[in-house]
Structures are given as C-alpha cells and as structure tokens.
Sequence to fold (273 residues):
Amino acid sequence: MIRLGIALSVLVFMVLWESVAPRRRSSVSKGRRWLINLSVIGVDTLLVLVLVPVTVMHVAIAARTAQWGLFNQITLPPGLVFFLAVLLLDLVIYLQHLMFHAVPLFWRLHMVHHADLDIDTSTGLRFHPVEIVLSIGIKMGAVAALGPPPAAVLLFEILLNGTAMFNHGNVALPQQLDRVLRLLLVTPDMHRVHHSVIIRETNSNFGFSFPWWDRIFGTYRSQPSAGHTGMTIGLSQYRDPARLGFVQLLLLPFSGNPGSYTLNRQGKEPNLK
Fold:
C-alpha cells in the first residue's frame, strides 16, 4: 500500500507537470495514446494478479526468515547492507534492460515499450504483459539470491516505479539542474535519448534509477544528435499509429518486425525520409 500510494502520487504529479511545462509537442493524438497505454497497463496488472500470487516483498521476508542469500551469510554494518542492497538491485535492473536489448526474443517483447511514437509518463508504465511477468521473476530471483533487508527492497521498488515515471516524463528541466541531477538520478533528458529512433541512441542509457551503470559500462550518451525537440521517438519500422493499437501491441512480439535494434545485430541507421 505504501508503494501504491507513492506511485499514484508520482503519476498525478507528473501528469500535471507535463500539462504545464511539456518538453516536446505531441506528434500523435495524446488521448488515443493514453487510452492504448492505460489499456496495456490494465492487462499487465490483471495478469500479474492472476499469475503471480506473491510479491517481491513476500520473497524478501521469506529470505530474511529462512536466511537465504548473500547478505544473510556475511556480516556487515546494517547501514552498508541497506545501501548495497538497493544499489545491487538497481544493477540487476540495468542488466535486465540490457538483456532485453541484446537477446532477439526478449527484444520482441521490449519493442512494445519502444514503439510508442511519443514519450511521456504513460510510456514508463507501458510494457508487454509477458515482459512484466519475466521482470517480476528476475527481481524475485535477485532478492532470493541477495537476501536484502525487506525495507531496502521496499525502497528499491518505490524508486523503480517513481523514477520510471519521472525519467519518461515529457517535462522540461533547466539545463544546469539537469546536468547536476543526472549525476544522481536518471533524468528525463538522459533517458529520452534511449527512445530515439536512431539505433546507436536506442542502445544507450539503459539505467532506470541511478545513472552510474551507464557511465561504468560505457553505455552512456549525453544528448540525442537531433536535439530533444527535433529527435524522432520510436522505432523506424513502426511509424503508422494505425498499426500500434491495443490489440496490435499485444500481438507485436509474435508477428511484428524486430528491425535491427538488438545489440547483437547492429544495423544501419533508419532512413525516415
């Protein structure tokens, strides 16, 4: 309930911010996009409720009770354990994101997220239902392997939800503030590069909460080549909104064209002329 309450608060705040100070103009109907995105999010939620009877927090509590995982086998100061747990769980999400770009089968699922023709807060929640279930399974496995304090897992989940909505937001931050803030968090301008139609930009800036992994592993790109207001959002093979309806998105991984975006198949830059 804590996580849900904070997530809803961040969602309302971001929607209001986007309406007051948008970074980019919409290229397609925002109302239709939001209806489609919310429909996908609704299916995600229902599928998780049906297929996943336990939460990541349940696994964290079970790991602490049964003394599973790394942090239950070593002795470190509680504050350091808490910090390392949040940090390592965020690293898992970075690596998971990288995997969904590297493995063609997983990329097909992840295309649903990237095929959005505009980027805003709703994009940060729009993922194919199968990807959502896989992601939950990966997080549960990481929690069982690490054995982190349940409170650290709760903070990690709150950060992951909140920053996903924040860094996908169509909001304008002063350049100086963005330059400082992206040393600590993934900002909207930093993550927006990842949603560029240009392949080398799509395959950069994989971080969700913390920006350090991209810098450490060499996947950081500061700005899009066309600028934030001039860049094209989405995938080169999906430019027609009529092909990106609710049903089409659910079927996209099984019938769609994956293009040349996967890390193991770097192709030529898309020609949008």
